[in-house]
Amino acid sequence: MYPRAFHYHRAGSLREAASMLSEFGDAKLLAGGQSLIPLMKLRYANPSHLVDLNFIEGTSYIKEESGVLRFGALTRHAEIEASTVAGKIPIIHDCAAGIADVQVRNRGTIGGSLAEADPSGDWATVLITLQTEVRCQKSQGDRRVQLTDFIKDAYTTALAQDELVSEVVVKVPPKGSAGAYLAFKRSAPVYPTASAAVQLTMDGETCKDAAIALGCVGLTAIKAKDAEAALRGQRVTEKTIAAAVEAARAVADPQSDMRGSVDYKRMLAGSLVKRAIDIADRRARGEQVEAGHIYA
Ligand SMILES: Cc1cc2nc3c(=O)[nH]c(=O)nc-3n(C[C@H](O)[C@H](O)[C@H](O)COP(=O)(O)OP(=O)(O)OC[C@H]3O[C@@H](n4cnc5c(N)ncnc54)[C@H](O)[C@@H]3O)c2cc1C
Q1: By Cβ atoms counted within 10 A, which residue in 33, 178, 188, 273 is the most buried?
Q2: What's the CA-to-centroid distance between 115 and ligand 1, angstroms?
Q3: What lines the ligand 1 site, CB under 6 Å?
Q4: Full DSSP string of 18-52
């Protein structure tokens, strides 16, 4: 189906784009279009004005500065996948490389993904295991929001109607810290059935800190705090991993759908956590371990 008629505008700067949102009211931003255009074609989204961000200079970049990685809002998943700078945080590479297929990765952006807040989206699940800040821009001024406060609910963020994402800033984890992101999918170009992100900071044999998040098993990415506590300050053994997996399963809150039943998804989430802990632990000890998504 064709989208309903709309007015198309090409923004010259992020500030101008924010001004247009304020001026037009019933307007949507266009980044990669990988979520928005299908919704417009299905007529679930019918904005009167479309503000295209794609022609704004300097909105696509990956920079390392003073202990953080900065991603421009329009940075494509494929650019992150190919970046050696982003690859310094392996869980970020796992995420970018596993999103859908190459066509979607070539168009879809990190800023658009976070702004969409799709419960099945990969970025939020991964980035809440790291310290992530979202830079938000209005026509007058900007602000910084922690990712944990940015995602409010399914498809709902802290963005005001006339505000946009300008940059995503991720703190580089300390030495001895590494993560892994695994998703279970029916095929590449579909969203995962369940996913798990694990970031471990090791001090010799002891897990100094753990961050564990589950994706696609709740209305937003879920931070598995009891699972983290099961590992924190402990050696990573079969027993502590089993405790973390049980705690992760308990906090999962999936819905039954064509991808599987509630029980199936809960079991799956636990299994993904178990595998991701193993990979994160080995990576934190300096081992090079490939982590690819798992297909049905
Ligand atoms: C077949 C297919 C499979 C997919 N599979 C996956 C998957 O497995 N995992 C996954 O994570 N994603 C998946 N996606 C989604 C993809 O990652 C999208 O790129 C992403 O959800 C949205 O990014 P976008 O840049 O395309 O945003 P758009 O579609 O352009 O915009 C999405 C929404 O965000 C708003 N927006 C865009 N940019 C900004 C900004 N800078 N500030 C504020 N608001 C903004 C738009 O107005 C719109 O409401 C898939 C998409 C398709 C078509």
Answers
A1: 273
A2: 8
A3: 28-36, 38, 73, 99-100, 104, 107-109, 111-113, 115-116, 118, 121-123, 159, 164-165, 189, 191
A4: HHHHHHHSSEEEESS-TTHHHHHHTTS---SEEEE
